[in-house]
Task: inverse folding
């Protein structure tokens, strides 16, 4: 059996085989393993078929099937499953069609549709849903009508990469994880960079890969996660990472 994709959540993991089988393992207190119960699995169990991608949050799972249908399962106390309520699920629920990419944050979710539109739902305490407020959303709402190339959900912040290679950030901004030059939360997308090919949102930091091969980082460096050395605790502006000896 050949594994073609992997995903790791807060305390659970999923694997996808080349035939589209989805296998799950780990913590399952909220049903996030998608197998119909809440019992932890210490070895992989097969849970779905015809899957092309998964995204795992703190305690929830997003599953993108090969037909473009999006399914969700697990903890839902903040609406992160997009089901229109706040009931946890141990059986997957279909919530959208025509989906191209998914990203799960700590307790929120981002979805890029095949038409380039951006949808969001779940926890919004710091503005990570980007709608200008801080009210949790139980169902998907459209944040952008089109022009989105990629999305990345961190624990409490969000990034979108537009088709013009600009990066927009929103959500919690302590330690400067949004790269805006300050520590003020952003409740709507704010442009923070350009010329970017790939984005990655972490727990309290952000990495950007430029088309020129450079890497820029912002946010907390308390554990060295943005690679700026032991004397730097945080970076509120994006700083280019230089490899030793380069």
Result:
């Amino acid at each position: 059996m050949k594994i073609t994709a992997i995903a790791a959540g807060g305390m659970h993991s999923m694997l996808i085989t080349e035939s589209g089988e989805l296998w799950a393992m780990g913590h399952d207190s909220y049903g996030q393993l998608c197998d119909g119960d809440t019992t932890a699995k210490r070895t992989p169990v097969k849970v779905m078929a015809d899957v092309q991608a998964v995204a795992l949050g703190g305690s929830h799972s997003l599953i993108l099937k090969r037909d473009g249908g999006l399914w969700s399962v697990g903890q839902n106390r903040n609406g992160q499953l997009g089901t229109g309520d706040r009931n946890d699920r141990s059986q997957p629920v279909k919530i959208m069609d025509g989906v191209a990419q998914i990203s799960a944050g700590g307790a929120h979710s981002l979805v890029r549709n095949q038409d380039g539109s951006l949808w969001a739902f779940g926890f919004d305490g710091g503005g990570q849903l980007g709608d200008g407020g801080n009210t949790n959303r139980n169902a998907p709402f459209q944040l952008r009508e089109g022009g989105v190339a990629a999305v990345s959900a961190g624990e409490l912040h969000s990034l979108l990469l537009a088709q013009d290679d600009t990066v927009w950030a929103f959500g919690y901004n302590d330690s400067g994880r949004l790269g805006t030059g300050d520590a003020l939360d952003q409740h709507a997308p704010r442009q923070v960079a350009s010329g970017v090919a790939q984005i990655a949102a972490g727990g309290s930091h952000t990495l950007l890969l430029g088309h020129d091969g450079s890497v820029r980082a912002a946010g907390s460096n308390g554990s060295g996660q943005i690679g700026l050395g032991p004397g730097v605790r945080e970076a509120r502006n994006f700083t280019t990472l230089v490899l030793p000896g380069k």
About this structure: The radius of gyration is 18 Å. The longest strand covers residues 41-48.
